[in-house]
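Writing this down once: the sequence line spells out the residues, with the fold written below as integer tokens. I am pasting one below:
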Amino acid sequence: MHVVSVNTGQVKTYPWRNGTPSALHKTAVQGGVYIETLGLSGDEQADQKNHGGEDKAVFLLPANHYERFQIHQPFGFLGENLTIEGLDETQVCLGDRLQIGDVLLEVTQPRSPCWKLGERASIQENWTMGSFLQAYSKEGYVGFYCRVLQSGSLQVGQTIQWFHDENPAETLTIQDLFTAKQFHKTAQHLEQLQIAIQHPALSDAWQASIKTLLTQLTHK
């Protein structure tokens, strides 16, 4: 398990919807990068309401998703800060901790794919916006956000130490959590969402969103 690429981006205006500011496109950084409570040094977010903040300070994505989704672009194209190998959403669970050198991260939520991601894929790859977002969301291979518990510098090639809670009653993989919230079709999905809102690591945004969803589902 190691870091394949470290990526940051700056806010730029894109032609989508008559001009949209975004820092979705990120490029690889050479050398060490300092990570603190609000993320990587030099990384920006255009939409402060939906991106960034302490609960979503760092976005991680497995490198093999570029092949999975037929993206022929350099790492960072899909918006990730850290491109990683050796772990994916079927293994990583809510609340897991990742130690990378001095940096300690805690997993807080899956990524919620937004329309800007579909726009980029449709312009530069062989996708329509809707088909890409559907494929990206279908099986929960969406990447995950972390909060920073301990600041420090990291760089490409560093080993990731994975600290995972083995208690099956409390573990909820990122894939299962995303699928439960995205589709919420089964009793198991509802049970998983109930587990999620009791978990202290869950981001405030997903805590509120899941509570609203459960209220709607139980009052149908």
